[in-house]
Amino acid sequence: MATESALDTARSQLRRAVELLKLSENDWQTLSTPRRILEVAVPLRRDNGNVEMYKGFRVQYSTTRGPSKGGVRFHPAIDMDETVALAMLMTWKCALTNLPYGGAKGGIAVDVHDLSLSENERLTRRYTSEILPIIGPERDIPAPDVGTDERNMAWMMDTYSVNAGFSVPGVVTGKPIVLGGSLGRTSATGDGVAISAIEALRVKGISQAGATVAIQGFGKVGYWTAIALENFGLKIVAVSDVHGGVTGFKNVTELWNHFQANGNLNAPGTEKLTQEELIQLDVDVLIPAALADAITQANASGIRAKIIVEGANAPTTPGGDAILNDKNILVVPDILANSGGVIVSYFEWVQDKQNYFWTADEVKSNLNDILMRSFREVEAMATSMNISWREAAHVIGVARVAQAHKLRGLYP
Ligand code: NAD
Fold first, then answer.
1. Pocket of ligand 1 contains residue 77 by CB under 6 Å
2. What pTM value is reported for the model?
3. pLDDT at 285 over 90
4. How far apart are the CA of 221 and the centre of ligand 1, in A?
5. Cα–Cα distance between 258 and 262 in angstroms, integer?
6. 1 has pLDDT over 60
7. CA distances from 288 to 218, 308, 336, 365, 374 (A)
8. Fold identical between 34-179 and 188-337?
9. Which of 137, 207, 255, 279 is least crowded, fewest Cβ atoms below 10 Å from its Cβ?
């Protein structure tokens, strides 16, 4: 069987939604074609004076429902195909949650662990400057993703603003609070993943108190998901990062403190696990929160979790998905489960536009409203059409984009 890249996965999910919606071949052509693709060379002067070239990408997959929106990933494996796939997913995610955005994604093929702080800053600023003609608060609004965080967003906002001649906080989201960031954005994706997990437990009739959870990835999404779920009374039994997994820790905060102090997860009293062992643990909820293609045809049959909540983007290949469906495992798909990040990014953009900032409670309550509305819509669509939750989520998102295309018509 052909390898399943993130782009293969995204295209096959779109193909299925187009079939379910009985859209035409013309619609498929329109929906499966990215609107604007930019590849840039990003030269970096290293601290030792050497100059190295990196490849940078920005894909604006759709601008039909509003400015495009999506993260910036710094990771050695990122390429144009993956960026297109992730930008496509952002398009359906924004449509599913009914945010007034299209979808985008970007990044640089670089290992951030090889960069000093000042190298990271220079690389971020030069990348921003190279993609500057196509971004802006009314055009395309970047945000953090794998390998980037609020520091990178501050440098991007500053680079854009210096070139504009005035402060433009709305050009990026996920900024530090003092620069126009939103309360609640740092934990938003994890909070949304946790809300999705709680709702999925309800659907499956599993009691929330003491339900067990394994999380692959202990970065911005994995960590905040773990904290939120622990606060909801669930038991996090295992987590992993790029170096492998651990089990046997007392609680997430203690493990995080060890990780911050030592740079590894091997806290005293913990036992090591491989990624595959973690994925196949006998838990109620499995949360992939790292990279694409974590669950495939090769490992899905060994999964024993009752529910999978996709914190990561595109963590399950179509081959893996088919096996999970056969095993009757409830999969809350990425474009629903991890949409908390873009929902609160939207709130940040709205606050920046209005120069009026909300309380943490307002952010939390509005996030909950939008996520729960989307959750109910997906649950109802899956039931009424007798399809998987992933198919239902794509049907809703793709239908909204297709309808917007039809209503706008074709220029000229
Ligand atoms: P991050 O860089 O903060 O963390 C990534 C984590 O994954 C790290 O703990 C890293 O060690 C781990 N990791 C990397 N490769 C791994 C591997 N092969 N096996 C196991 N763990 C591995 O990134 P993040 O922002 O937490 O993003 C994680 C996922 O969530 C990505 O798929 C991203 O696209 C998605 N996502 C992020 C956001 C957001 O707001 N940051 C929003 C929606 C979706």
1. no
2. 0.98
3. yes
4. 6
5. 6
6. no
7. 10, 8, 14, 26, 21
8. yes
9. 207
C-alpha 338/C-alpha 190 separation (Å) is 7
Q: Please give the CATH architecture assigned to the domain spanning 188-337.
A: 3-Layer(aba) Sandwich (3.40)
Give the residue whose CA is nearest to atom 30 of ligand 1: 312
Q: Among candidates 60, 147, 54, 161, which has minimal Cα distance to 105? A: 60
**Residue 333 beta carbon below 6 angstroms from any ligand 1 atom:** no
Ligand 1 atom 29 nearest Cα: 312
The verdict on the CB of residue 72 being under 6 Å from ligand 1 is no
Q: Which residues share a beta bridge with 71?
A: 143
Ligand 1 atom nearest to CA at 314: 32
Sheet holding 307-309, edge to edge: 271-273, 244-247, 235-241, 212-216, 285-288, 307-309, 330-332
Q: Where are the domains of the chain?
A: 34-179, 188-337, 372-412
The letter for the amino acid at 245 is G
CATH number assigned to the domain with residue range 34-179, chosen from the 4 options 2.60.40.3390, 3.40.50.10860, 3.20.20.80, 3.40.1180.10: 3.40.50.10860
Place of tokens 């970047």: 142
- Please write the tens of the pLDDT for every residue from 228-262: 999 999 999 999 999 999 999 999 999 999 999 99
Q: Which residue has the tokens 């938003």?
A: 188
Whether 184 lines ligand 1, by a CB cut-off of 6 Å, is no
Cα 312 to chain centroid, rounded: 5
- Residue 3 pLDDT: 61
- Cα(207)–Cα(210) distance, integer angstroms: 8
Listed in sequence order, the DSSP H helices in 51-184 are 80-96, 117-131, 150-164
Q: Whose CA is nearest to atom 39 of ligand 1?
A: 145
119 CB near ligand 1 (under 6 Å): no
Length of the chain: 412
3-state SS class at 77: coil
Note whether 34 and 106 are within 8 A (CB).
no
Spacing, Cα 408 to ligand 1 middle (Å): 36
**Over the stretch 325-353, which tens digit does the pLDDT of each residue have?**
999 999 999 999 999 999 999 999 999 99
34 lines ligand 1 (CB under 6 A): no
pLDDT at 2 over 80: no
Instruction: Give the residue from 151, 133, 153, 150 showing the smallest Cα distance to 142.
Output: 153
pLDDT digits (tens, 9 = 90+) for 43-69: 999 999 999 999 999 999 999 999 999
CA of 23 to the centre of ligand 1 (A): 34
